[in-house]
Amino acid sequence: MSKKIALITGASRGLGKNIAVHLAAQGVDIIGTYHSRADEARALEDEIARAGGRAVMLRLDVGDSAGFGELAQEVKAVLAKVFTCNRFDFLVNNAGIGLYAGITDTTEQQFDQLFNIHLKGPFFLTQKLLPLINDGGRIINISTGLTRFCSPGLAAYATMKGGLEVLTRYQAKELGARGISVNALAPGAIETDFGGGLVRDNPEINRQISSATALGRVGLPDDIGGAVAALLADGAHWITGQRIEASGGALI
Questions:
Q1: What pLDDT, on a 0 to 100 scale, did the predictor assign at position 91?
Q2: So what's the pLDDT on residue 197?
Q3: I need a surface site. Which of 10, 182, 191, 203 has the fewest CB within 10 A?
Q4: Phi, psi at residue 75, to the nearest 5°?
């Protein structure tokens, strides 16, 4: 039986890297994308190879849709050359950036950048990759807890993720005929370098979030990598069109 293959955007660091490692531990082969840090990308390839898996990292700017066609061709070539197949099984739209700015201070340039990366990017990258996804496959769009609860300074970022959650439901509806399930996973606050490492490195912010979370702490990357792996396991295929929050019970 052939191994499953997952394509994960933004896989060289943070949550994307953790997702890749968790899936590889379940026997899933990885095609990942990275934006600029080729050293981190190669390090992930090596880490997964040492654990007995296979990973190939490809460069991609998710904020530039002009490059999506070329990326699809690269993926097609990698599937044939490395994995001796012509389609993959799982797409995880994870790549993203953070922005902390109030509504009155957010510039159009910042807004457009967030839109291109977090909403336009997943929309059209998924469109380009659909011919390469197996029928019966899965798509996971990484959203945020901030679409449910509000934290001042994150309006533009959360707005894009809100659009991504709507897109998730439409993808689930339209791709259901191919047996493809689509869900949005919404992390709460996580200790990573995302947004400058604010949650990880600021003890006061960390304490405030922990005190408002049912499980009494902020999230760790393994919490999200494990959740994605669970959603892509064989028993979860009947779940589709859902927003699933992984926040430890933040602000409930």
A1: 99
A2: 66
A3: 203
A4: -60, -45
What is the distance between the alpha carbons of residues 124 and 250, in angstroms, rounded to a whole number? 32
Active-site residue, 157 included: yes
Q: Are 133 and 180 in contact (CB under 8 A)?
A: yes
Q: How far apart are CA 225 and CA 235, in angstroms?
A: 17
Q: How far apart are CA 161 and CA 146, in angstroms?
A: 8
Place of tokens 């993959």: 88
Asked if 94 contacts 10 with a C-beta cutoff of 8 angstroms, the reply is yes
Strands 55-59 and 29-34: parallel
> Cα-flanking dihedrals φ and ψ of residue 204, to 5°?
-70, -45
Q: What is the CATH number of domain 5-193+221-242?
A: 3.40.50.720
Please report, for the chain, the start and end positions of each structural domain, with discontinuous segments joined by +.
Answer: 5-193+221-242
Identified catalytic residue from 34, 100, 157, 170: 157
Residue in the structure block whose two tokens are 């993926």 = 75
